[in-house]
């Protein structure tokens, strides 16, 4: 199996922020048990940007929900920051969803401070913290807007700010830019890398876009169709900070092509 | 020449109706028994203002209590039906079918149970207004975006927090729509029951004066009822505007397009 050769975290001596061992998932369908995920192993060292790609319905989102403690796996272990996760823990894991899923009755800053409100943090502290996060994502001064007054890209910025507001070591992102237009998507990818470099978070990012995957990732995990398995782990050695010009290079194209071949010929 | 705004046209139509109301009986196009002139109606209303005020007070009291019952029970039972899947499957078809029944057939039964005083009106109108409140509350809770709940759980929300901070605010728009309709139905319920069997209230004045063919006094009562409904509608719309800034603005805000367009250029 491929995962035997991939214990990079222990090899380099960096502590794993996300560790998945022998994870499988079976759910009860109409015609009996359906295997959804099979023998997933992951080892994401702290501060790394990992992108998961795979065909629709391969269980990427399920895997992410399990990493977030939002769904239970059938077997196997998940360690976040060294400890098992069996229920959502926003102090360890922030989640950014595809639909920005902001609450329309709250302003941007109230949305960002929502996790702190749930924790009963003092008003001034949480407001300061939320304002700081809005500044980090480039939305200083937009705090009093309601979501309907924000563009799609800005909503996702607010959503990222909300995911980061409790300063968790790990940020999980489920196709966060899929609903955006191409140009906004490129800008947002670039912005995400800036935020990531500023905060040194560990990011696990799901996408359908191969270009986005190569542009963002330190490492790309390619998943197979159901039952989802990890077919390939591909290091992306393009220098940081990434630039748009890199997309035109031969190296970028080769990486993209390699992922495409894997997905296309996946069993 | 510029085209008049819809508001101007609406006002003109209103004025036209008032003018016709005065002119048609005066010109003898229709007998005054059918439509008494507007001024004559208003004059009677002025003469009998004490009687109408007393009747209105009774009607408003009945409507208020009936609305409390309709809204309270509607929201309570609607939340349970909308929130608990097993109860929903069991009860929702029953409630939906009951909604289609002309509940007015129950009114004679209510008068037998509660007498012909205010109680039977309150119960009848309360039941009448209950259904839309209950059904829309159930719908509002059932149709909450799953993503809202998932996001809240990922942020560590407990079940009470989920209810207080997500489910209730998210279902307010639908619930308010139900309250608006339910409230209007309680007004109808009270007036209709007063017209059927009663000794007081505005509806009673309609029936009483009709039997004596006193058209101006019938129409005076109608004017009072119309005013009551319009005041209710204005009040509800005011509440909706205040509570649903985010929603109404999202759907039909044309007053500040500049503000909405600016951020799109500023970032992302």
Question: What do you see in this structure?
Answer:
The complex is a heterodimer of chains A (267) and B (268). Chain A is of the alpha/beta class. Chain A is built from eight helices and ten strands. Chain A is globular and about 50 Å long. Mean pLDDT of chain A is 87; it is low at 1-12. In chain B, 82% of the residues lie in helices and 0% in strands. The longest helix of chain B is centred in the middle third of the chain and has 38 residues, at 159-196. The chains are: A alpha/beta (267), B mainly alpha (268). Chains A and B meet through helix 3, helix 5 and helix 6 of A and helix 7, helix 8, helix 11 and helix 12 of B.
Helix and strand topology:
The complex is a heterodimer of chains A (267) and B (268).
Chain A: H1 8-12, E1 16-29, E2 32-45, E3 49-53, H2 60-67, E4 75-80, E5 83-84, E6 93-96, H3 108-118, H4 123-136, H5 152-164, E7 170-174, H6 182-199, E8 202-206, H7 210-216, E9 219-223, E10 230-235, H8 250-264
Parallel strand pairs in A: 3-8, 3-9, 6-7, 7-8
Antiparallel strand pairs in A: 1-2, 1-4, 4-5, 9-10
Helix pairs in contact in A: 3-4, 3-5, 4-5, 7-8
Chain B: H1 6-26, H2 38-47, H3 49-83, H4 85-100, H5 107-114, H6 118-142, H7 146-154, H8 159-196, H9 202-211, H10 215-243, H11 245-252, H12 257-266
Helix pairs in contact in B: 2-10, 3-4, 3-6, 3-8, 3-9, 4-6, 5-6, 6-8, 8-9, 8-10, 9-10
């Amino acid at each position: 199996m491929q995962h035997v050769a991939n214990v990079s975290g222990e090899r380099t001596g960096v502590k794993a922020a996300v560790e998945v061992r022998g994870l499988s998932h079976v759910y009860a369908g109409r015609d009996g048990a359906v295997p959804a995920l099979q023998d997933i192993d992951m080892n994401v060292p702290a501060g790394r940007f990992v992108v998961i790609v795979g065909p629709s319905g391969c269980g990427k989102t399920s895997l992410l929900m399990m990493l977030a403690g939002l769904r239970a796996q059938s077997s196997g272990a998940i360690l976040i920051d060294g400890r098992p996760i069996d229920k959502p823990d926003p102090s360890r894991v922030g989640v950014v969803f595809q639909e920005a899923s902001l609450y329309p009755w709250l302003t941007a800053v109230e949305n960002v401070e929502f996790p702190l409100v749930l924790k009963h943090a003092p008003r001034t502290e949480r407001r300061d913290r939320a304002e700081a996060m809005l500044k980090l994502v480039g939305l200083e001064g937009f705090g009093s807007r309601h979501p309907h007054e924000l563009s799609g890209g800005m909503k996702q910025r607010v959503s990222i700010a909300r995911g980061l507001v409790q300063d968790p070591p790990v940020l999980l992102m489920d196709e966060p830019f899929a609903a955006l237009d191409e140009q906004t998507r490129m800008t947002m990818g670039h912005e995400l890398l800036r935020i990531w470099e500023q905060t040194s978070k560990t990011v696990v990012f799901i996408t359908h876009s191969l270009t986005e995957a190569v542009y963002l990732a330190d490492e790309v995990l390619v998943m197979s169709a159901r039952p989802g398995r990890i077919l390939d782990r591909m290091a992306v050695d393009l220098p940081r900070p990434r630039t748009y010009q890199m997309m035109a290079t031969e190296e970028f194209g080769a990486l993209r092509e390699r992922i495409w071949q894997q997905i296309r010929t996946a069993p | 020449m510029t085209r008049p705004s819809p508001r101007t046209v609406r006002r003109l139509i209103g004025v036209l109706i008032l003018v016709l109301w005065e002119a048609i009986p005066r010109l003898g196009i229709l007998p005054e028994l059918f439509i008494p002139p507007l001024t004559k109606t208003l004059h009677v209303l002025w003469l009998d203002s004490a009687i109408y005020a007393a009747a209105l007070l009774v009607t408003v009291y009945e409507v208020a209590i009936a609305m409390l019952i309709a809204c309270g029970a509607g929201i309570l039972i609607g939340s349970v039906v909308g929130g608990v899947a097993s109860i929903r499957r069991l009860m929702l078809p029953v409630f939906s079918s009951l909604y289609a029944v002309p509940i007015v057939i129950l009114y004679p039964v209510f008068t037998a149970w509660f007498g012909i005083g205010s109680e039977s009106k309150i119960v009848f109108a309360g039941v009448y207004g209950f259904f839309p409140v209950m059904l829309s509350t159930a719908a509002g809770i059932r149709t909450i975006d799953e993503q809202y709940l998932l996001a809240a759980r990922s942020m560590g929300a407990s079940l009470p927090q989920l209810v207080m901070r997500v489910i209730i605010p998210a279902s307010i728009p639908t619930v308010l729509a139900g309250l608006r309709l339910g409230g209007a139905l309680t007004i109808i319920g009270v007036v209709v029951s007063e017209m059927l069997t009663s000794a007081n209230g505005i509806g009673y004045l309609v029936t009483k004066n009709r039997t004596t063919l006193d058209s101006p006094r019938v129409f005076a009562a109608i004017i009072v009822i119309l005013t009551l409904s319009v005041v209710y509608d204005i009040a509800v719309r005011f509440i909706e505007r205040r509570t649903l800034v985010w929603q109404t603005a999202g759907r039909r805000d044309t007053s500040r397009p500049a503000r909405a367009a600016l951020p799109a250029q500023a970032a992302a």
